[in-house]
Amino acid sequence: xxxxxxxxxxxxxxxxxxxxxxxxxxxxxxxxxxxxxxxxxxxxxxxxxxxxxxxxxxxxxxxxxxxxxxxxxxxxxxxxxxxxxxxxxxxxxxxxxxxxxxxxxxxxxxxxxxxxxxxxxxxxxxxxxxxxxxxxxxxxxxxxxxxxxxxxxxxxxxxxxxxxxxxxxxxxxxxxxxxxxxxxxxxxxxxxxxxxxxxxxxxxxxxxxxxxxxxxxxxxxxxxxxxxxxxxxxxxxxxxxxxxxxxxxxxxxxxxxxxxxxxxxxxxxxxxxxxxxxxxxxxxxxxxxxxxxxxxxxxxxxxxxxxxxxxxxxxxxxxxxxxxxxxxxxxx
Length: 332
Fold this sequence. Notes:
By secondary structure, the protein is α/β, with parallel strands linked by helices. It has helices spanning 2-23, 43-54, 66-77, 98-112, 135-163, 184-204, 222-228, 233-239, 247-260, 268-277, 287-331, and strands spanning 34-38, 58-63, 87-91, 117-120, 166-171, 209-215, 264-266. A seven-stranded parallel β-sheet has the order 3-2-1-4-5-6-7, sandwiched between helices. This is 3-ketodihydrosphingosine reductase.
């Protein structure tokens, strides 16, 4: 009887694997597609643009600094696969004025055609203890990280639905899956992106438009270097428990998942564990993906208890060291 039940389970799993591709979204063809990348002048955004360009896409780069945009354009153009490809640069702050963002998207579509894929990569990070951060820091990060993703997405969504084709990528962070010491302002802005993505996916899926949320870990970018300048000791020590990824590696995975229409995009074993552990009610691209999450969630939750416990011990150790230093200063 037990053998029969095991055989039935194996057959059921095999059936799911066979049926899954039939109900999964069809991959988006990048050759000739128009890809818009915000925050595309450096870091992960620039690497995503390069990866798409390598596959034959037309690129619109959107960022604030015009000089950096032009430099990125030169780098990207080195990777062309045909002489028809174009890299268009537009300088605008995507977090300030929706009408401006809408206008530049219209300009890009007039020159390169409808947007097939939008990658919301514009963002910034500022860290510090909750009571040490100015209230304006919370407002600024919500504006850049959250509204900076809302505005471009709002500008392209109508056309995507009309054409019944499109991909919208939101670049969140592992700090958007897991709240960490020193990231009260940053984490909340990145968590907000996930809520937006989940709700938006429910609205646009009937129109063959798919949303991807990427959760990159610490990545070797100019933004990460700037972030390290203000990190509290506890935050820095927690970050040092994992290795820093290369932006090219992160970009390849994000582009791959976006093409496939996967909702979650994670990097490495830690990223996979976090995505499975925090999947909640998030949509899945295939039956097998959902099955994998169900099977692995219990195991990963057990691992996470020890994983998060190590973070707590780092914070306590830093607090103890600071307390001893303060006592020593007072008695000196």
